[in-house]
Amino acid sequence: MGRTSIGPHVAESHYRVRLALTDVQVTVDAFTEVQCDFDCLTAWTEPPSISEPLDDSRSQFRLRFKNEELGIAQVSGAEVGLTATVVGRVGGNAANVKQEATFRLRLPPTSSRDIINNWVRPLQDLLVLALGRAVRLTGLYMKPEGADPDESFGRASFEAVQPAVGPPPDWSSIMSYTAPTLLTFRDSPVPFAELVPNWFHLRQELLEVLVLLHSEHYAKFMFNEHKYSAVFQSAEALVSARGLAGPDKSREDHRARVAGIVAAARAAGIDEEAVNWAERILRTSNGKPLSRQIHDLVSSTGEIGKRVLDASPDFGKITAAARVGVSHGRAQNGWTQWDGFGTAMRFVGSSAQGS
């Protein structure tokens, strides 16, 4: 009897690798320890120096080679630590070492996808908001479930949209007078143990707001018009999330306003069909104007909002008018002068949360 073949003959299969892990062997997509590095994390952290003078002349000094734990926070059953690590080479007559800050996570067994989406990306977003600039993930290392404590991490490689490689920022570049930095690890009024869990909660609550606000930092190829539009949509989303959209007038005042307009139209002899059409439209048109929504959002942030509105009382009108031009292809009113709108919204967003 001849051999029966079921289905088509498969000569080869092709698989698209979503994530590659090197230096370790795993059979299950589950990891319990993670280390993630970002290009600006050391500058943002400003860890203590690894050198200590031994005398007043500073001609002799001692080098610290041990890692130093700078902060630990608990988030949803996981531990997020900020560590200053010393890396380099020492031997014979030469020493070449440097210090780098890194996030280290200990968590229940978690898939690589969830680690990137639910842990790495939120930490990256925290740095983007704090610094007002693009932040590049420079290293991701994971340790599989069941690994020995002294077993090495595996290096993860995956496709990601990131800014171009460049020199890492230093402390002076993120703390200059022109830098859009909101806060750093050292000057944060909120301890690390509170900052991180509060941030994860806030990010989950305002995810749409932050995705739009940060889009220009992840997609550096965006045109300026699209950057402005995304930031403004972020402001609109924040208005909605904070319940600031609301009606323009109370129901009673709105009904009286509509009745007055309708009565005036009838008294002027306007066609009844046109009057009825206008009345239907006006009854449902009690939304707060976009310019007032932005004004109220800025005003709700206390002292920061007051300073913005003192400097530009028509801030809401100008930014809303610029948004109309960008959204509908009729850019007018010099919207490009509002490249700082994104910076203003970062201040507004942070102040609105009282952080």
List the helices and strands and how they pair.
Elements: E1 19-22, E2 31-38, H1 41-45, E3 51-53, E4 61-63, E5 68-75, E6 78-91, E7 94-110, H2 112-131, E8 137-144, E9 154-158, H3 171-174, H4 192-205, H5 207-218, H6 224-241, H7 251-267, H8 272-283, H9 290-299, H10 303-311, H11 315-327, H12 341-352
Antiparallel strand pairs: 1-9, 2-7, 2-8, 3-4, 5-6, 6-7, 8-9
Helix pairs in contact: 5-6, 6-9, 6-11, 6-12, 7-8, 9-10, 9-11
Task: Output the structural class.
Answer: alpha+beta
Radius of gyration: 28 Å
- Percent helix, as a range, is 40-55%
Largest sheet, in brief, is: 7 strands, antiparallel
Strand content: 15-25%
Write the H/E string, N to C: EEHEEEEEHEEHHHHHHHHHH
- Overall average pLDDT: 82
Number of domains: 3
Spatial shape: elongated
- Biggest sheet, strands in spatial order? 1-9-8-2-7-6-5
Q: If helices are DSSP runs of H or I spanning 4 or more residues, what is the number of helices?
A: 12
- Poorly predicted regions: 331-339
